[in-house]
Amino acid sequence: MSSSPLNVAIIGMGTVGSGVAKILLDRADQMTNRAGRPIHLKRAVVRDLSRPRNIELAEGVLTDDIDSVLNDDDIDVIIQLVGGIDPAYDIMLRALESGKDVVTANKALLCEKGESLYQRARELGRCICFEAAVAGGVPLIETVTQAMSANQITSIEAILNGTSNYILTQMFSHDVSYDDAVKSAQEIGYAEADPAMDVDGTDAAQKLGILVQLSLGIKVGLDEFLRQGIDTLSLADLKYASELGYTVKLLAVANLIDGQLEMHAQPTLIRNDNPLAHVEDAYNKIALEGDAVGKIWLSGMGAGQMATASAVVANLIDVAVGRAAITFPRLDLWNPRHDIKIMPREEISRRYFLRLNVEDRPHVLADITNVLGDHEISIASLVQHEAPEVDPNESFPIVPLVIMTHRTTEGRFQAASRELEQLDCIRAPFVRMPVND
Amino acid sequence: MSSSPLNVAIIGMGTVGSGVAKILLDRADQMTNRAGRPIHLKRAVVRDLSRPRNIELAEGVLTDDIDSVLNDDDIDVIIQLVGGIDPAYDIMLRALESGKDVVTANKALLCEKGESLYQRARELGRCICFEAAVAGGVPLIETVTQAMSANQITSIEAILNGTSNYILTQMFSHDVSYDDAVKSAQEIGYAEADPAMDVDGTDAAQKLGILVQLSLGIKVGLDEFLRQGIDTLSLADLKYASELGYTVKLLAVANLIDGQLEMHAQPTLIRNDNPLAHVEDAYNKIALEGDAVGKIWLSGMGAGQMATASAVVANLIDVAVGRAAITFPRLDLWNPRHDIKIMPREEISRRYFLRLNVEDRPHVLADITNVLGDHEISIASLVQHEAPEVDPNESFPIVPLVIMTHRTTEGRFQAASRELEQLDCIRAPFVRMPVND
């Protein structure tokens, strides 16, 4: 057992970086036991040295000189916690080139540039660990890459964006609008000042992309699959869904069906008897299906300081003991399933939820159902409540109409939607969501 | 990357053994990719060669000569699937002594004899892998030993016996008696002809013992903590619990509280808003709490041919790539928390559910509540329904009385129970269960 210390540098001392430092410093003995050697936090790189921090680091650890850290041959591992692509990509490449292993939580970077980074790391005999990049403290990457290694993963259905899940939970449980729920998420620290990447579905889609790459070895670009956020939903949608026995979640899905990969990340109606319907606040929940093990579910905090730091430090221990060096070069990344085709989005077959605001007058329902019928879409259920107060600018009362369709294809549904939008009797908003069942 | 094959022998070709062979034979290429070398099923040891099997093995693989397998220096790994202690213990020791790593699903053996086996394996530089021994296909051992390595695990609350969970689900969902539900479990293959170890709580307690040993490094014997099975429950208990907003599960619990370990495995009332209340049929579900990551939940099939085989083969790949050799000697087994004391069972503090059959006459309720009051137990809620038809052998109608207490200690509750059982007004059965909240 090697007892030489593992020298570590953290780049980016934000919330997660401070959490990692806290674990390494506060429980050094326990970490030494588990790693079989001391883990020594040698440097922590920040942009602004003068900013106050609520963690005490030894003299000389904090620096704003990233070059000195990347060039320091004594440093074995870089914990790369800078977000976005630029300069994170360069930092990571330089770390690898200078012989360091990298632990990161940056899912945007791995989703967009993972292929070249993984490739370079492998050529250099280094490894990249990223348990923290997807589902925070939930042991999802480890499960996909180790526990399920006797399986072909055939289905991933996952709630991967804690911010969106928190907002949806707030809206429904506290009867508040989307805007108020976003404000509350910002106050509690779950949403950034600009929460766009969370609420528009990008974050969930990036994480799904990483999971698909790990389980099938193929990269699917963000523009190659359906992606939609919760930012187009209103409280009314959640209430109608509930009335019908469903819960709305931002659901990322990858299903292997007859050699085709169905993939999308969208707000989705989930039946209340599906375990994925029951995950509240900023928690993540993931259903994985393997052809041997069947379905397994994992859940826990997908973000937050200590949950994410826990995943980062677990990876650090993987590096320290040598597990990472074994696991990384044998990921399914390197055994791509080129036989699998991405299912064209038009062919994806599901049921749909449709909320329309329509004029309350004769023929309207016939007009709408005729359009659906022309596209061979049949109606499974329909809810129309009485008209609220009448808008004086309208000749007729405007009433909400909620339709659940039977199974149809995305292509047919989109074509019907386009036609419906042209009807005189329909007012905005026009809300559509797929149903998972 | 080593490309020499890993030679494997399975001892015990029952349901799980056949499942393991099926994965190794049917998807040899995929396993080779993931293991970095071929995994070669060299021998499969059975007791009775003449028994028909629904798996086709190459000429010479099947044998009833266990010695030739244990003495075969070419065999690298033994998959030990013989249940019970004897001869499983000897087989495992001999396998280790002859230089083989061992993968096993035998939780009884690990719970009772784990210490000496682990010790011997470590002295010999070998490893023992046992993902399949606890919670079948759920990646629980891996999560406890790898993903949570930045944490002290502070709480384990788990549904670990699929047979009991199936029986409880059947009883409640199909309104059938305990005996009928056991019969149905036997028909579907979830329960043995003699299901004693499953339904009396032994199996769940053994698994809890393994988890505690892995997360705290201390061995707690089966006689050192409260253990109770579902075999004393009736449908009425599940219905009363439901009426009060709870679900009854066989729950294994280990909580670290101020340096003391509270530990028990008993049928327990779980509030319906707790995720552990929602796991049906033969599924397992586990809530783990770590001091960094917070709570995480895992669920999936805890038994069954392919789910268990999936865990066995994952371990086999861990051995093939060298991960097992790294992980095993660094388990927390080797860093025992001797500072932790087992909380005396009398001091465990919980709420309780109590179902009594009592005479329907004046003073009875006063007598009962006086006994509870004498032991400083106060009543949180009470349900008494009207008397069913009168038994002609009784002078008074006999009515069921259900009491939920406020929090009290096990010691007080047991003392009160003993006194209650002496009261003339009480008839059998006398059902008590703790409440988890």
From TrEMBL, chains A, B:
User: Entry's Gene3D superfamilies?
Assistant: 3.30.70.260, Dihydrodipicolinate Reductase, domain 2 (3.30.360.10), NAD(P)-binding Rossmann-like Domain (3.40.50.720)
Q: Name one GO biological process term.
A: methionine biosynthetic process
Binding locations of NADP(+): I11, G12, M13, G14, T15, V16, G17, S18
Which intervals of the chain form a coiled coil? none
EC identifiers of the protein: 1.1.1.3
**Where is the catalytic site?**
K207
> Organism, per UniProt?
Gimesia panareensis
Q: What does the record give as the organism's lineage?
A: Bacteria, Pseudomonadati, Planctomycetota, Planctomycetia, Planctomycetales
All copies of domain ACT, residue ranges: 353-434
Q: Which GO terms describe its molecular function?
A: homoserine dehydrogenase activity; NADP binding
What this protein is called in its record is Homoserine dehydrogenase
* Cross-referenced SUPFAM superfamilies: ACT-like, Glyceraldehyde-3-phosphate dehydrogenase-like, C-terminal domain, NAD(P)-binding Rossmann-fold domains
Concerning NCBIfam families, the annotation shows:
PRK06349.1
Q: Where does L-homoserine bind?
A: E192
**What keywords sit in the KW lines?**
Amino-acid biosynthesis, Methionine biosynthesis, NADP, Oxidoreductase, Threonine biosynthesis
InterPro entries for this protein: ACT-like_dom_sf, ACT_dom, Asp/hSer_DH_NAD-bd, HDH, HDH_cat, HDH_CS, NAD(P)-bd_dom_sf
Name the protein family.
Belongs to the homoserine dehydrogenase family.
Chain sites annotated for binding NADPH: K107
Catalytic activity, per the record?
A: L-homoserine + NADP(+) = L-aspartate 4-semialdehyde + NADPH + H(+)
Listed pathway(s): Amino-acid biosynthesis; L-methionine biosynthesis via de novo pathway; L-homoserine from L-aspartate: step 3/3; Amino-acid biosynthesis; L-threonine biosynthesis; L-threonine from L-aspartate: step 3/5
